[in-house]
Amino acid sequence: MRMTKLMEWILVGLLVLSSWIAVLIGKPNYANLNWYYKWFPVIFIFLFAVYAVITVLYRVFTFNNCKAAAIELQNQIKEARADLESKGISFKKQL
C-alpha cells in the first residue's frame, strides 16, 4: 500500500509535534535546545510560508501557455454560443 502525500505530511507533522512537546515538558534533558524548541512553531510557520511563496512564484513564472488549447476553447465557446442562439437565446451585451 502506497502512502499518499497527505499521509506523509501528517506523519512528519506528528513526529515533529511529538518531539517538540517532549522537549517542552522536559523528557529529554537538552538544556541547549530548549530556546530553539520553544520558538519552533513560529520558526516552522515562517519557513513554511517562505517555502509556499517561493513555490507559488516559481510555478507562476514557469507556467506555460498552450496556444492550441486556447484556440480550441475559443472555438468551443463559439459553437456553444451558436447552438444556444439557434435555440432562441440571445447574447446582447448589457451595460
From TrEMBL:
Topology class, membrane: Multi-pass membrane protein
MF GO annotations: glycosyltransferase activity
Pathways involved: Protein modification; protein glycosylation
Pfam families in UniProt: DPM3
Main localization of the protein described in the UniProt heading: endoplasmic reticulum
Transmembrane segments: 36-58
Family: Belongs to the DPM3 family.
Record's function text: Stabilizer subunit of the dolichol-phosphate mannose (DPM) synthase complex; tethers catalytic subunit to the ER.
Protein name: Dolichol-phosphate mannosyltransferase subunit 3
